[in-house]
Design a protein that fits this description.
Among the domains are: 2-51; 70-229, Glucose Permease (Domain IIA) (Distorted Sandwich), CATH 2.70.70. 43% of the residues lie in helices and 19% in strands. The protein is built from six helices and twelve strands.
Amino acid sequence: MKEENQKSVRPLKSKWYKRKRWVYPAVYLGFAAVILASVLWYQNSIGDELDEEASPTGFENQDAVPVNSNSEVFKAPVDKSAVEVTKKFYDSDANAEEQEAALVFYNNTYFQNKGINYATESGEPFDVKASLSGKVVKADQDPLLGYVVHIEHEDGVVTHYSSLADVQVEEGDTVKQGEVLGTAGMNLLDKEAKIHAHFEVRKDGVAVNPLDYFNKMVSDIPDQKQATEEKAGADADAKSEENANTDPAQGDQGASTDPADAAEEDATTEPDQGAATDPAKADDASKTDETQTEGTDEESSTDSAGETDDAQPQENSTEDEDQQTDASRQSESA
């Protein structure tokens, strides 16, 4: 009976194992799920702490600044395919011809051109556009310059547009780069230019050459106050160095104090017209001088002899007078 029971039990155990094979994988999956949930919970808790630490404070009420505002570069305020530069910026380092071409004549006075002038070859009007995005701080009519528009940018940079026949913006407007501001026209300051547009770029109130900063950013323009001070200091140093190199004993006529110059002047000085350059003539001249000297000596000796002869009669006459005086005295005493 026992053997039969054992035989009957064994098959039951094997059948139970076969039916329960999914238990172990389920246990493994359960442990994996617990571990994964723990990891996710830990990451979430750390993320919340980091968010609290990185939360901005004090910037809630500030206006948003466009990300690409500093990436703009200066562009020509006109369509360069149809418009050209007719008068350039007056550059103090340019040659005399370029400086003369950059002058504006008005009321019998010449003025330096502080910007550049644009015009078409045919003299037709054209659109004037914003060189950079910014805020319009001035838009009105000037009796001398025509309609003018001033646009303010970053870092103390302001662009000026003048000699406009009309304007399409108002003060306080925000304009984008390339937006039309007005149409080119004429003004009283530069009548010879006829229909044109005048464009300036100013940094800290000082005009700079716009042609030097096209396709460059506003930050590329240096500080003009510092540049002006450095230039003034360089001019002062150059002037002091020039004064130091000047000889105090220099005459009013500005004679050269350089020994090399003095030697060169001596070498280039023409000889006296009366001086003989031929050796034979020099000998004749010396002989003539000796003859003249001998004649002068003879004349001086003759004059001396004459003076001696004249002096002897005077002495004899004096002796005779003395003798006569003595004789008269003796006769009186007798």
